Predict the 3D structure of the following.
Amino acid sequence: MTDANALWGGRFAAGPAAIMERINASIDFDRRLYAQDITASQAHARMLAARKIITQADATAIEQGLDTILREIEAGEFEYSRALEDIHMNIEARLRELIGEPAGRLHTGRSRNDQVATDLRLWVRDAIDSLDTGLRHLQAALIDRAEQYAALVMPGFTHLQTAQPVTLGHHLLAYVEMFGRDRGRFADCRRRLNECPLGAAALAGTSFPIDRRQTAHELGFERPTANSLDSVSDRDFAIEFLSAASLTAIHISRFAEEIVIWCSQNFAFIQLSDAFTTGSSIMPQKRNPDAAELARAKAGRIIGAMTALLVVMKGLPLAYGKDMQEDKEPVFDAADNLALAIAATAGMVADLQANEAALRAAASAGFPTATDLADWLVRRLDMPFRDAHHVTGALVRLAEQENIGLAQLSLAQMQSVEPNISNDVYDVLSVDASVASRSSFGGTAPERVAAAAKLARQRFLADDGVAP
Ligand code: ARG
């Protein structure tokens, strides 16, 4: 047993058992909230003075003391104590050492329950802002490469079977759309979380004449939260953040998986430099796409974090419960790992080199222009599409037997299946003709892709920040 806790005084005669201290203390992880905690406390102290709940002199001493603590923490000179449980009490205890009695007045009209809810909202808001910057950089990298590869043909797949030729630029722009929606979800989450719980106190509000609008405004929140019970017990914002993070991680993992496949010798669509690959200690020929594999794997822990917090919150009665202390580690871990995955993915996008010959060869294999042939039969011979599909199937079978592509079938061979086929059918059988023809809005024609890249630049990268 240690001494009774200094901060809650007389009611507890003996201190916590060692195991209690270990399960109860959050300082090992919630120290990451130090900057938010100090900012929020300073705003609270200013408000208390403005409302004449404490003196201006006390508020000034508190603000300056907190500035000193901020410097100590950032210089690595602050001594954290597990006995003091969490970041809030560690800072307050140090403040008392530094300024004495006025430190005890800071906690007027608030509780750790609204304090931690405020700190974590501020932290998540900052995390969203920096993830948004990371995603924007990733989009910028993708758009640059999409412009470069707007006309580079590659096989488009469904079921991972060759379907129709597309361009690499078009494929990369598909991810720009996904990351744009991800940014939209984070922005939406940010809008909803931007209300200030400070002043809800323990759960019921306070009898002091506080001004919640002032603190909300000073901390950059839109408004104070409306219900004190909800204020201290709501962790929706953290769960929404984790679900937006999960979906982003899913998109990262899909792209990372494609990078892994494309780098494989059996595809050889792209190459990553040494900067993003590792060798093998035993197989000298290897160039393993570890960064892509790890980016792919991050979805596992990020979805795990979301699931963890959902399950923590399930069935919790109002208002605050210590269960909710378990919200921080998943949020921190998901934010850190998502930021890392986004940055690594942006790095790989800038690094990758497309293997043009392999992409073109793969785009030409597997009768990728069969649909173009069927469409030609419909357009030129006025065939119903179902019949055209049938005729094309017979021509594919013939080419398969001869072990050649559709464009290599002679006109006589074509006419043996459908006598009305004429020479201009060859115009639609090349992969370049195929992609060029897909010029509908959102399609893969190189001109379309170049225009889409330009538009994506305006939509997602413009400084006036057109909302994603
Ligand atoms: N460390 C706590 C948390 O993260 C702070 C709030 C504690 N409140 C309380 N009534 N014990 O949730």
Observations:
- The CA atoms of residues 43 and 215 lie 6 Å apart.
- The two ends are 56 Å apart (CA to CA).
